[in-house]
């Protein structure tokens, strides 16, 4: 099947889809990487994969979610594991294709589109590459509008759609089909253990669902949001504007939310849980930053589990999951990720309110502060940073 | 399909099969439980299941392996996990059926017989119960002629047949399909982790293979051996004979091998690795026995990983895997298992040479002493106990 056949079948008009070229996927991936909250892995891995697909002449087309027919089957493709391992072990060709074929066989039906699982340097472009390979569109949604470490941490689960069946493959031909019905936490547990058994990284085809569910349970226009953020940083670099301010402006335009510049400083300490990639399947640890400029004399601490989890400045909590934390290089706007963060890196911490579909009561239960072991009730980032708003005003 | 249709299709004569009734399965399970080397779990669980099938009027027929057509597809059904958990969490109806159906769907073909994976109190009768449910025969073979803790520890693997795909199910409807090609150790690792994620116990359909492979790679007539051992103990109980001597005699008749009465004593110390069922997926530990009668003043030590692994008497190694260790109640011949062994139990340690198909170089590599962490070259039990032979003579 070619993607244009699908576009015709779905009776889409030109305004209903966007053709994705090299520059588009670069911008989307940059934006996704910023929204990835310190996780999501090395964008180069996913980008190279997508470039290859484009260079082979396979078109990649992104479709407006509200134009997707109710009855078409779609699924997510993603890398699940510790990003640090991925950097040392980039994917081999065919691994995702194998997962997709096994998922289709298990379901007895063909996929007609891909949906990115999250905003992340790897998993965003991977959904585009897979769509190009399959000859189907990628839908302008995802399950988080950020990155999160665990499989069940999606708006899909909080709105009643499940991760089962998930097919997990590795680059040596191993395949595991995980079918846990409505027990998404068990699906995560098994997927994680399988990824560790594979050597730290797995490639999954997951969250099979119909078009109707995509519309009702996804973060809609998540790709457009990432794209706008990426474009803003790209423009800031070209015009020598402040990239953090440009990101804030783009989020205001695209999502009508306000980001917070919560801290400016440099990383003075990193504690990594040794071997956590292999024993727990995550990159785990904590960083400490010392402030400079207007934050001189202040100290920031961030825990991470693949993604930054929380921000505490001078003992006061400034951000809790599921709200987003990005540490951006003040010059380039490039995000500082948990898998590559090093002593001496300098950056601005930007806090972004989570998407409203991530802030439901069920969402707070599944991926709020208590799930990650904090004895705290969730408070929105807007409330925790009222004083910053005042200070900026 | 009814089993008699299969018998007709395979053109079997009366001498090629045995109809299994309540007494037959009791005897086979008792013998299997003795050959299970301290593992294999509580026979009552598998027996009750088989009785139920028989009581529903479903015939169970055991077939001579050499009469099985080359091109029929068969598979094993088994419980994988820590036997101790099984005792607390007996299986619910349908769990194995679900695994079988998923295996057939994944393979795109129907199973035409079952093959027991091992000699064990649970997994022997389970293969009979599953055969009765499916309306197919059970073949007079297994993959060990003993019990072993790990999935890859079979004559099938050492002769080039693989455990993939394996379907693992639990009693809440969860299913995982594990397909690791020729990497049987990875299949074991994933199956074990899945079993732990399920809560300690899983039910698997595994080792799909054709009739030709059954003949070339199984332990042939393994069920008949277990049956002979079980019958011998049954007879000993009825005629007030020494059950251990009767077991030795039955093995001499059926397998032309000599067992060794290596130690008579009582259990004076048990060290269990706390929580190993949930952290490692096995029942792990060590027992110490103090001798009496002719063994007075001597001390025996046995490690266990679901099964007894080795026997050391007064610091001298008397048995290494894959040779068999049974601790039998001197009165009843009932085996003392690792999951129920208690302080004060009295028994005779019987050592039995492993089947020749388990003693190949590849077998010693996969389930010999070094695999279990002993810095020892494998030596056959006959060699390690020459002096006992002399003492008995």
Describe the fold and architecture.
The structure is a homodimer of 393-residue chains. With 393 residues, chain A is α+β, with helices and mostly antiparallel strands. The first copy, chain A, folds into 2 domains: 3-222, CV3147-like fold; 254-392, CV3147-like. Helices cover 37% and strands 24% of the residues of chain A. Chain A contains 15 helices and 17 strands. In chain A, helix 2 crosses helix 10 and helix 10 (222-239) runs antiparallel to helix 11. The interface between A and B is medium-sized, with 22 and 21 residues. Strand 8 of chain A pairs antiparallel with strand 8 (175-179) of chain B.
Task: From the structure above, extract its key features.
homodimer; 393 residues; alpha+beta; CV3147-like fold; CV3147-like; 2 domains; 5-stranded mixed sheet; 17 strands; 24% strand; globular
Task: Describe the secondary structure blueprint for this structure.
Two copies of one chain form a homodimer.
Chain A (H helix, E strand, L loop, with lengths): L2 H7 L7 E3 L2 H14 L7 H13 L5 E3 L9 E9 L1 H6 L6 H13 L5 E2 L8 H12 L3 E2 L1 E2 L12 H4 L7 E4 L5 E5 L4 H15 L2 E10 H7 L1 E2 L1 H18 L3 H13 L4 E13 L3 H4 L4 E8 L7 E7 L1 E7 L2 E4 L4 E5 L17 E7 L8 H7 L13 H4 L1 H7 L1
Helix pairs in contact in A: 2-3, 2-10, 3-6, 10-11
